């Protein structure tokens, strides 16, 4: 009976890699800064063009596109930031696609981010205790701020 053992290893890396650092969500009206790390694992300094493209997840229509340039030395990482104005993005899901292009090397990554409403439901409660039968009329108008009452009622 013959047997053998093979021991091997693998390293998954590219000469140029982009790794976004994204929030879990944005709220409509936010002015955020999103960042991505660009790693240069090649043996030469890289002049890198990093692009952020934001797409509507349902229609894949381009909502935003920005490009930044960075110089990343060999064996080092750099950070590239992009301002994002969520007032141009109504509620929904968006694809944030980051691409990096260097001298003969490219990489990309994308993440889906939700833009939430800037309005929040508020629940107000009041406790009432009745120990005997009664014909009491309850008014909840005082629980609603006057400016909201005028706008919505």
Q: Can you put this structure into words, describing what you see?
A:
By secondary structure, this protein is mainly β. Helices cover about 5% and strands about 45% of the residues. The chain has 1 helix and 8 strands, in the order ββββββββα. The model has no long low-confidence stretch (mean pLDDT about 90).
Number of helices: 1
Low-confidence parts:
none
- The percent range for helix content is under 10%
Write down the secondary-structure element order.
Answer: EEEEEEEEH
The Cα radius of gyration reads: 27 Å
Strand line-up of the largest beta sheet:
2-8-7-4-5
Q: What's the rounded overall pLDDT mean?
A: 89
Largest sheet geometry? 5 strands, mixed
Strand content: over 45%
Gross morphology is elongated
Per DSSP E runs of 2 or more residues, the count of β-strands stands at: 8
Question: Class by helix and strand content?
Answer: mainly beta
The span between the termini is: 87 Å
């Amino acid at each position: 009976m013959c047997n053998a053992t093979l021991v091997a290893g693998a390293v998954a890396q590219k000469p140029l890699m982009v790794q976004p650092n994204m929030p879990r969500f944005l709220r409509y009206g936010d002015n955020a800064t999103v960042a991505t790390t660009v790693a240069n694992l090649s043996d030469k300094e890289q002049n890198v063009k990093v692009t952020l493209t934001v797409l509507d997840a349902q229609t894949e229509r381009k909502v935003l596109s920005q490009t930044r340039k960075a110089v990343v030395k060999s064996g080092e990482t750099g950070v590239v930031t992009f301002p994002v104005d969520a007032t141009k993005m109504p509620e929904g899901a968006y694809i944030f696609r980051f691409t990096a292009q260097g001298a003969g090397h490219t990489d990309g990554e994308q993440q889906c981010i939700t833009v939430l409403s800037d309005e929040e439901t508020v629940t107000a409660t009041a406790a009432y205790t009745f120990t005997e039968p009664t014909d009491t009329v309850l008014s909840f108008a005082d629980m609603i701020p006057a400016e909201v009452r005028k706008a919505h009622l």
